[in-house]
Write a structure and sequence with these properties.
- This protein has six helices and no strands.
- The longest helix is centred in the C-terminal third of the chain and has 18 residues.
- It has two domains: 63 residues, no CATH class; 34 residues.
- The chain is mainly alpha-helical and 118 residues long.
């Protein structure tokens, strides 16, 4: 059995400012903190700042940053699930772009995203 704590305990601590648990170097949850917290509109700008330097910063520093920067409170964060109709329509669009411009699926997806942003 591993003595590694549950990553969700750390996320709860970040959100509710409960007793700050000792974060050890071997835990490696920094990416998970950024991933999960980025799903909340309220936290997106805080996470965006960390994402720029996340690969160069130790995970303990990431935990400390989020613990200090994320406001206290219960924010319901939910990963959105995409429905089958949406995914089918998106795949159809990608196929059309692939055929029209003779590009790979990845390039077609990038084209589609760029067009949506304009």
């Amino acid at each position: 059995m591993s003595d590694k704590p549950n990553p969700w305990d750390f996320i709860r601590q970040i959100q509710f400012k409960s007793t700050k648990q000792e974060y050890k170097k071997r835990y490696k949850y920094g990416w998970l903190f950024s991933f999960w917290l980025s799903h909340c509109d309220r936290y997106i700008y805080i996470v965006q700042k960390m994402n720029r330097v996340q690969m160069y910063v130790p995970d303990k520093a990431i935990y400390d940053y989020y613990f200090d920067k994320i406001p206290t409170g219960s924010e319901f964060m939910n990963l959105s699930k995409q429905d089958k109709e949406f995914m089918d329509a998106r795949d159809k669009k990608i196929e059309e772009i692939k055929e029209k411009y003779n590009v790979s699926k990845r390039e077609a997806l990038l084209i589609m995203i760029h067009k949506e942003r304009l």
